[in-house]
């Protein structure tokens, strides 16, 4: 199927046969071939795990498509990536980020629904602590850990502080309430147009999520929760209301990751409790074309990527890439937020939600820093903050906006040239 996978996640060679697992670019769905399914023990008698779907034929035979938590069945049998490969991946990814003019990232860990919470912690000790102690950090990171492990994050911060140094900052915890639009697992009030009767997936029980949020919040951790569908976003906004009423007002900077489709009026609710809409303009490039097919044109046009409405409602709007889901490239994301046009499109998608340059720049700099409690040291060039900046070919956006690639001439971190 055309929408499935662009990335080979794990291929195991044997003399005659290949197990193949293709992961969809958003990490919410994957396709296993028959041998991989056999090794994972998936057949018509396997039940859907909680928070996941094994896509089946009318005869209940699995098709090979696994959605959200169902991917766990295959992840269990994929060999682990070696420590050396993971370390090398951090260095390669850091160089790639610098080339694109990125000096700080929020890393929410390798945890996606269906994977082990432990991997993120192993990456912290094997990869980040290694790079840090060896003086190999090239970009700054703010780390979020899987929410069920909040007591460990809290202990770690007590022991080591919020910043291990200028390079590694401990942010808080992350959870997923629903899946994605592309995998038809984002949680909506109304069913998908192309899958009648299907409203998407609720990945967590609201009482469990409220409990973990209250506990995390009480221990001073920042909470970031993934919500894409309009229902998932409303459920989170309601839940955050409850946390504030139970635990009082304070500077918590709750993050809703993606806030992609909002019900009427929801955009104005973010401002009430200073909630951060952590959005990714370049996801729009993947969804603008298919959203109408998935949820209908009317619903798509009133609910999708409401950047301007969010800002107007007082939300803190922070841009990011969700890399590797979309490309890590702030200049391109800024252009997308301003134009809302796919390559080759004449008209913008939902033109009223386009942003001016100034708002887009802020969303990718100072607001992104604010969204991880780092605005006191990052996000603008003022005395007392780190000298992290890029050199562009012109001070006029118009002069290079039509031809973005290759336009980061140099990237500086801590006042030192880090790229090229
Ligand atoms: C969360 O659940 C645990 C275990 O049931 C309970 O002990 C704790 O009091 C709950 N916390 C909150 C804030 O409700
Ligand atoms: C937050 O809620 C928890 C659990 O209900 C409670 O133990 C704690 O005292 C509250 N904190 C504040 C600041 O109200």
Tell me what the structure shows:
The chain has 420 residues and is an alpha/beta fold. It folds into two domains: 68 residues, no CATH class; 302 residues, Metal-dependent hydrolases (TIM Barrel, Alpha-Beta Barrel), CATH 3.20.20. The chain is built from 15 helices and 15 strands. A seven-stranded parallel beta sheet has the order 6-7-8-9-10-11-12. A five-stranded antiparallel beta sheet has the order 1-2-3-5-4. Strands 13-14-15 form a three-stranded antiparallel beta sheet. α6 packs across α7 and α12 runs antiparallel to α13. The longest helix is centred in the middle third of the chain and has 18 residues. It is globular and about 65 Å long. 45% of the residues are buried. The N terminus is likely disordered. The structure holds 2-acetamido-2-deoxy-beta-D-glucopyranose (NAG) (2 copies).
Topology:
Elements: E1 7-13, E2 18-23, E3 29-32, H1 34-40, E4 52-56, E5 62-68, H2 72-75, H3 83-99, E6 104-107, H4 118-133, E7 140-146, H5 150-160, E8 168-176, H6 206-218, E9 222-227, H7 230-247, E10 255-258, E11 276-279, H8 283-287, H9 291-295, H10 297-303, H11 307-312, E12 316-319, H12 330-339, H13 357-364, H14 366-370, E13 389-391, H15 397-400, E14 410-413, E15 416-419
Parallel strand pairs: 6-7, 7-8, 8-9, 9-10, 10-11, 11-12
Antiparallel strand pairs: 1-2, 2-3, 3-5, 4-5, 13-14, 14-15
Helix pairs in contact: 3-4, 6-7, 12-13
């Amino acid at each position: 199927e055309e929408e499935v996978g662009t990335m080979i996640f794990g291929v195991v060679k044997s003399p005659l046969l290949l197990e193949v697992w293709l992961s969809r670019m958003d990490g919410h769905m994957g396709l296993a071939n028959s041998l991989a399914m056999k090794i994972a023990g998936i057949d018509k008698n396997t039940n859907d795990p909680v928070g996941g779907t094994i896509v089946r034929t009318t005869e209940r035979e699995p098709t090979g498509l696994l959605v959200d938590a169902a991917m766990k069945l295959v992840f269990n049998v994929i060999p682990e990536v070696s420590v050396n490969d993971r370390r090398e991946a951090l260095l390669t990814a850091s160089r790639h980020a610098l080339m694109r003019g990125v000096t700080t990232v929020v890393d929410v860990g390798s945890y996606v629904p269906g994977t082990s919470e432990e991997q993120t912690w192993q990456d912290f000790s094997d990869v980040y602590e290694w790079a840090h102690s060896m003086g190999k950090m090239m970009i700054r990171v703010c780390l979020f850990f899987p929410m069920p492990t909040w007591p460990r994050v809290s202990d770690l911060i007590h022991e080591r502080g919020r910043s291990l140094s200028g390079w590694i900052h401990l942010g808080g915890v992350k959870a997923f309430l629903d899946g994605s639009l592309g995998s038809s697992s984002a949680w909506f009030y109304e069913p998908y147009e192309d899958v009648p009767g299907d409203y998407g997936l609720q990945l967590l029980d609201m009482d469990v999520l409220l409990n973990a949020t209250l506990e995390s919040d009480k221990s001073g951790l920042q909470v970031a929760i993934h919500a894409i569908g309009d229902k998932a976003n409303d459920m989170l906004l309601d839940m955050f209301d409850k946390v504030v009423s139970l635990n009082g007002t304070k500077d918590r900077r709750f993050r809703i990751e993606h806030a992609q489709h909002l019900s009427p009026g929801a955009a104005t609710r973010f401002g009430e409790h200073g909630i951060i809409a952590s959005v990714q303009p370049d996801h729009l490039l993947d969804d603008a074309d298919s959203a109408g097919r998935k949820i209908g044109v009317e619903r798509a046009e009133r609910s999708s990527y409401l950047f301007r409405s969010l800002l107007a409602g007082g939300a803190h709007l922070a841009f990011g890439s969700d890399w590797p889901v979309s490309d890590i490239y702030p200049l391109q994301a800024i252009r997308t937020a301003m134009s809302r046009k796919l390559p080759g499109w004449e008209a913008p998608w939902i033109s009223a939600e386009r942003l001016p340059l100034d708002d887009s720049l802020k969303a990718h700099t100072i607001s992104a820093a604010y969204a991880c409690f780092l605005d006191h040291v990052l996000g603008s060039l003022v005395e007392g903050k780190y000298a992290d900046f890029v050199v562009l070919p012109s001070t006029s956006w118009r002069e290079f906006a039509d031809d973005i690639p290759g336009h980061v001439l140099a990237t500086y971190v801590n006042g030192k040239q880090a790229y090229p």
